[in-house]
Request: fold
Amino acid sequence: MNDNKMIVNPPNNRLIGAPPKIGIRPTIDGRRRGVRESLEETTMNLAKNVADSLSSNLRHANGLPVECVIADSCIGGVTEASQTANKFAHEGVGLSITVTPAWCYGSETMDMDPLIPKAVWGFNGSNRPGAVYLAAVMAAHAQKGLPAFSIYGRDVQDLGDTSIPEDVQEKLLRFSRAGLAVATMRGQSYLAMGGVSMGIAGSIVDQPFFEQYLGMRVETIDMTEFTRRINENIFDPQEYELALAWTKANCPEGKDYNGPEHKRTRSQQDSDWEMSVKMALIARDLMNGNFQLAKIGYEEESMGHNAIAGGFQGQRQWTDHFPNGDFMEAILTSSFDWNGVRQPYIIATENDALNGVSMLFGHLLTGSAQIFADVRTYWSPTAVKRVTGYDLDGRARDGILHLINSGPAALDGTGQQEIDGKPVMKPWWEITPAEAKRCLEATTWHAGMTEYFRGGGWSSQFRTRGGMPMTMCRINLIKGLGPALQIAEGYSVDLPDDVHNILNERTDPTWPTTWFVPNTTGNGPFRDVYSVMSNWGSNHGAISYGHIGADLISLASLLRIPVYMHNVAAENIFRPHTWAAFGAMEPMGADFRACANFGPLYG
Reply:
């Protein structure tokens, strides 16, 4: 593949409906004859500055810029609050931020929509009591059961100063990223392609969870729909030829690890490539449709399921007979394919919908591809020394987690994208064709191990470059509790080639590997690396580039999902103001009590 043959596609929205907007609500003291008039310009300018700042610093996960909608006038009472709510409803506002430098009438000016995430910035100024309004309206939000985020600058500003302090900006952005994720999921679909894989609980797709907590619906199809579409050629034939040629040119085959009695013939392997490419096209079309199908007589199939995420069961009913879904999942979850650089798809291996949602959270917050992995093995320093003779050092000195997937991971996970020479996983719209090429060149494709995959197929193999800050998360469903989230921030690490090979080949070497070290604290589930592994709630985890744990915590609180395990610094945690009332001296317990009290956002 030459660099000039791959393009970076412009951002576009492949889901039904426009992306959500941020509503900015400038509130004001309603008293006329001097008080309100003296504040009008300052208040509206504050709102405009917030809107400009958010629009300049945020993008949707699809790459489109985030739009802000400002109320037509300052809000001094219930009439203007209602006028603003009406405007926001027509404009597609999905979250609101109220800003003011002064006292306002709390319950008369507040945002009363129970489904819209809310924040209030009460200006820290001594001239007018914006902080007093902030405290009063937070009390109103708490009393009415409408949790809101409280934003209050650390340092006093002068009246008329409409600049946004750094600490305020950080909270505005954190709330907005989380709120946009909530609003983006609302009304979309999870597409379950198949059912339960090998008894994995996460692939027992719980529809009430999606409906009550995420505002999503679940669409389900049987995997025989793939068979039908393959047999009846229900895919774009021209794109298929393009995709197959691109795959042959850019997906180099590696060693076949199957023993002689398990090897598939060259003819079978070629057929596996063809079917794997068709599966990728079909899965994408099932999720979001393809208008080209209508042109060849398949209008119903051209519509898709409006899926923001999905999962493919695969094992075992499919993979005992047909090629595995590894290529399909790897290439779709990556930020590029035969059509160029484009937004990654969120597809969960083995239809683990809970890990799919965890991947979706990371993608909506960052715009980057996500790694789906088994949380496979804890390697202690003693065990590594015994098996390889090597002493772990640096970040790895206290042990490592082997994240390796019995399926694919996004090729972005190779770490071949860079900023200032350091490995990263970029938001997809920042990836260059040259970086996409390096990711492809760092990946080899190996004939599926037929002991696992009797129907053959092709599995991706790469090793994630060390030194990347990463966040692993996972939602689990617990009977009597509901959903709960766990988060582990840490770093990818490098091992010497010979050490990596020895450890990697003790399991299936045809799968991608990330050596991960969570940040430890000496306490609880983060006492050491072993404790993280011991307390992880499932066999899978979703891994995102960057330390995004604080954003995940804010997002979870909006959805009323408690976080039971994290290593995020306390000063970075940002939840709705009323959470403190449930136990300010015990924030984790308070999170559980608040989530239970308010219940799921849509339930």
